[in-house]
Amino acid sequence: GAPAAAAGPLAACAPGSSGSEPRKLTGTPSASAKGEITIWNRSGDLFKVFDAAIDAFRKAYPDIKVNHQAVDIDAKLANTLISGTDLPDGSFWDDAKIGGQAEHLYDLTDLIAPYRDKTSAYKLSVNTVGGRIYGVPWDLDPGLLWYREDLLEDAGVDPAGLKTYDDLLAAARSLREKNPKARPLHMEKDPFLGQLWLEMLAGQQGTSLADADGQVRLDSKEYRNVLNWVRDAVDDDLVTHAEYLKQADLAALENGQQALVPWAVWWSFAPQQLLKKGKGKWRAAPLPAWTPGGARSGAMGGSSFIIPAKAKNPELAWLLYEFLCFKEPGYSAVYGPSEVYPGGLTTSVPSYGPARRPDKPLFEPVAALGGQDLWKVAVDAADTIPSAAPIPAWWAKSVDYLGNNLQRLIEGKMSPDDVIDDSTKKIQRNLVDRA
Question: Which chain positions lie within coiled-coil regions (predicted)?
Answer without folding.
Answer: none
